[in-house]
Here is the input.
Amino acid sequence: MLRNLMLSTALFALFATGFSPSVQAQELRISGSSTVSGSLMVPHEREIETLAGEQVGVTATGSSHGIKALVAGTADMAMISAPLGAVVASINERDPGAVNGRGLIAHEVGRNQVAFVVHPSNPVRRLNSNQLYDILAGRIANWREVGGVTMPIQIMVEPPGGGVRSAVEDTIEEWGDVLAAESYVQSAPLVITAVSHLPGGLGITSMSHVNGSVDLLETEEPMGQSLYLVTVGQPDRRMTAVIEAARATWRRLEGGNGDS
Here is the structure.
């Protein structure tokens, strides 16, 4: 009798403090691309959680680190902003055999626009496709050749395997010898910081990272960058709900001019 009374008292105390007899699911751990994180998953996290009916924990570590975390089991989903094959190839190039891409599935949740940016002091505000391709291939090396002042063009872009870079490579197919090692920055968001301090800089980044410290170039041919959530095998019910919620949120953003 006393034992039953103590059990009843304990249960009452648990319910009084908000305990639910059904075990609450842990948040889904999502790690990877700073572009996917910064343009979609973090600023619109509450909307995605509400639509999905799930809690998420988002960490921006870069596409490659996201895939590594997914494969290692320390993340439930990865965020990448380049084709899955390119990300896996980039990882294995640096660390042969580190990741087996077989069994990984990429789910596109949105498509961001590639942005070409310059220092605010640069008078060039527009490049046609031929001019842009010639700069990226190394055939044009000075701003005076495209109507600017006499000043070397310094291209700033993320390293090979990055989402923005991959999107541009899919379009132009050649870089020439224009990209020296010192032109690389660690990630697409840091391109903005670099160009804001380089009067001769031409930055290649994601539209979602552009801010008032640089000026956006008008170009003839928009280049798109796909944003993905990646799972090991087919996603379960909870993951599917988050994927669909992310897609719905991106569609709403696009409807409101939102590469925001």
About this structure: The first strand starts at residue 28 and ends at 32. Residues 2-23 have pLDDT under 50 and may be disordered.
